[in-house]
Amino acid sequence: MITVWFLMALIAFPGVPAINYKGYYAYHSPEECETQRIPLENFIVDTETRRGNNVFYIQTYCLEMQAFEDQLKKYKEEKGISLGAENLGA
């Protein structure tokens, strides 16, 4: 098992009975994850605004969790990508 920091966003919309949530990426250090919080929030604002949702609230979190090394390796191989900021919004 290895420790990863999982970037998650919670979004609240007026008149909607539940909070929407979405996980984005796993990072190898808390610093890597923290540096992606604001760009993710900006990405969500742009996306929701284009969808016509002008009123909403976003909060992002970096959650520490354990993952199996083969999960990350397989993910990277299948997607042909690295787990990092260059893939934000892909």
Explain what you see:
The protein is of the alpha+beta class. The chain is built from three helices and three strands. It has helices at residues 30-35, 37-50, 69-79; strands at 2-12, 20-27, 57-67. Strands 2-1-3 form a three-stranded antiparallel sheet. Strand 1 (2-12) and strand 2 (20-27) form a beta hairpin. The chain is elongated and about 40 Å long. The protein starts with a strand and ends in an 11-residue tail after the last helix. Mean pLDDT is 85; it is low at 85-90.
Task: Considering the chains and any ligands shown, give keywords for the structure.
90 residues, 3 helices, single chain, three-stranded antiparallel β-sheet, elongated, alpha+beta, disordered C terminus
Span of the ends, CA to CA: 27 Å
Which overall shape is indicated by the principal axes computed on the Cα atoms? elongated
What is the structural class?
A: alpha+beta
Rounded to the nearest angstrom, the radius of gyration is 14 Å
Strand order of the largest sheet: 2-1-3
What fraction strand?
A: 25-35%
Low-pLDDT sequence parts: 85-90
Described by strand count, sense and barrel closure, the largest sheet is:
3 strands, antiparallel
Helix-strand string = EEHHEH
Helical content band:
25-40%
How many strands in all? 3
Average pLDDT over all residues: 85
Count up the helices: 3
